[in-house]
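Q: Got a minute? One more chain.
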Amino acid sequence: MAERSGAQELRERDVWVSLTNAKLDINSTVSNVKSPKAGAVVLFAGIDPTIPDSSLIVPFADGIAGTTRDNFDGKPVTHLEYSSYAPLALKTMLSIAQAVKEKHALTAVSMVHRLGVVPIEEESILIAVSAPHRHAAWKGGEEALELCKEKVEVWKLEEFGGDEGGVWRANRDGQKGSQIETVDAGQPQV
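A: Always. Here it is, folded:
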């Protein structure tokens, strides 16, 4: 496992996976997968349609860069905080990326997940894939994201405004979490 500027990453034959506390870099993620063998590059991370300038970050085959939205289940969200068991999460991400690359005959795959506090309107995950043709790239990118959310050992704290506190949950769409209460020294109590 390599560490570069606070990021932990694994690389293996046209597959790059990384966990980082830094703000995610769309251009770097896409440059990992660019190749003269690829006719399509797709960047995927989900999207919050309420972000007014989201069209500015769609330069790659209608790629999508997602953000932390300001609500969940009708409740205001102030920020998300991601945590992981990095050695296992990176191995799982690498396994997913390799499997998707092989299944869809992709040229390359790059996955990066942000850890720590992710403010509203900032990306928490980027997945870029390249392929000779766009159909394979779209399918491969979507499958990589769904498998990442389903299997990777990343958990998130959704911090709500007001007295409600936050909820820790597996990084899965719509799954219920455990309410936490903050006790002395800011340590969560579940």
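A: The chain has three helices and 13 strands.
Q: Perfect, thanks.
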